[in-house]
């Protein structure tokens, strides 16, 4: 166990030593003596609390991002979540006098943990080069602490070791964008996209923000699949607790009111749950549908949905392709809870929903609200749709609005996110 978390704060350490990096091998060379260390620190820019990644000008030593020298000759971490991770990592300590204490080496397995390390179920990426992988984790750490210069420098070093490692290209692109280096950012992001065209890294979103890609091309199926595969283990808890998510609850309530207005029983035949996720919508509709079938891009989300035992069938597919393969008029209800935030134009899904619904069937969904025309890609990397766009689309595809109202299905930093909820009826 790490002793740093017991009896004293982990963020204040007597001294964190580091190894110089051999320019010939890229591997750690013997650490300098304590006397040389004192002399180096007295002339180091780290004295004023600044930290950067790279080789210093004195002895070729590597400065670790996220560590700075305090006024009392101690090193302290600028990663606020460092203490949370200490209990799962082991460190060796070394004092100024040379006694064995803490040694943190950026290129060793015992290096500082990434402050926002992915959960064990998250996808772990590797370049195939252990040294490159360790430096990439430090680039992530520096980026998360908004030290974009350090993140960019480390990403460039990773690319030197593993030029075809797409995450490092993406890291360089995002860091360069934050530093205002637009051309370098676009070049790196395009390189990442060339290496991984399915775009699990979501670099299309970054290119769209930089004006190098049309907004309606920013989100791909590959990105959504990867996003929710990693999100699946904590999806329900995070969504309902942290984001106060209640999309399925609001849709179920709106369907009750719609059925009352239409003077029909609150019961449905075959129901198609688009972007079903872990099954939250099915939990709201359980007992009121003859059968529910779900579709989602993420296999891990579908695994969670299967455990609910509420679905007659589950399908791993893109939702428009899924609807296109269904029989005309077979469904009584189509629902989509907070799914269209990952889609730009909705023409195809409205058309297919109308085709698969039987006479007087219902189509219920939520979207994020856009106050203008059409749709926009927001700063939150989600699409928002305008009321006039949705009403015009519903009318052109043969739907009659039963309910169309302003709602908020979730919060962002404690602030309700504006949205629309609609229940449409197939007109004929």
Structure description:
- With 428 residues, the chain is of the alpha/beta class.
- The protein folds into 3 domains: 3-103, no CATH class; 130-213, Tetratricopeptide repeat domain (Serine Threonine Protein Phosphatase 5, Tetratricopeptide repeat, Alpha Horseshoe); 233-426, Rossmann fold.
- It is built from 15 helices and 20 strands.
- The strands form 6 sheets. Strands 10, 11, 12, 13, 14, 15, 16, 17 and 20 form a 9-stranded mixed sheet that branches. The protein has a 3-stranded antiparallel sheet with strand order 1-7-6, with no helix packed on it. The chain has a two-stranded antiparallel ribbon with strand order 2-3.
- A hairpin with a 5-residue loop joins strand 6 (67-69) and strand 7.
- Mean pLDDT is 78; it is low at 1-106 and 108-122.
